[in-house]
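Intended use. Records such as the Excalibur calcium-binding domain-containing protein entry shown here are meant for training and evaluating sequence-to-structure methods. They are not intended to support clinical decisions.
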Amino acid sequence: MNRTGLAAALVLALSACDPEVPDSAAGAGIGAFDSYATQQERAARNAQLANSSLTGSPEATGAPQASSSSATSVVSTADLAAAGIGTATPTQPPATVSEPVGAPLAATAAGAAYVAGNNVAISDEQDFNAVSARESIQSDAERLARQRSQYADVAPTAVPERPRDTGPDIVAYALSTTHPLGQPVYRRTLPNQAKAERKCAGYGSDDLAQLDFLESGGPERDRHGIDPDGDGYACRWDPGLYRRAVGG
């Protein structure tokens, strides 16, 4: 009998001794699971024995024989596939990592940020061990000397005087007055409150109205008719806001 026939006879003989796979329809309990696991182990062992008989038995090649425990521990994927036990094959290789996690960071310069691959980490200038490993008292002194050489002393200069030809100043005007709103101080000719209301509606704010009033000859003259009561305050402008701001 040739080697192929001997291997086939051996597989048939071993398979005849294996118990049947438990019927799942009858219910798979703990005992059924153990029996199924034993059947898987025997199928793997049978596949290994068949593979060994095809490639050359230990007796024929003179190779040392392996014990039964070692025979079951070295079952390969090909052996399981030959026994009918399929294994999942990955459709694509696992992704490779270009840089291992926790790789050492490469220092660019003292005080500069550390770089790992393309990722910029936080500077380690506050880490005593890291700084002391690359700096010394002499290097610190040299760095301080370089920084001091770049200092530039700026001589103080006098504050420029404010130009006096900038036009009326509503703040200065408010602080120069003391009379309240509505108290007539200046004479008005034919005052018209309704006309004043229409004119005041055209200003963006009461401050702008007072500024235009002063620039047009106020408070003595009211060319736009926006101070009909003659108190020197156009529209609803209130000098008390500025007086209270300075504590007056």
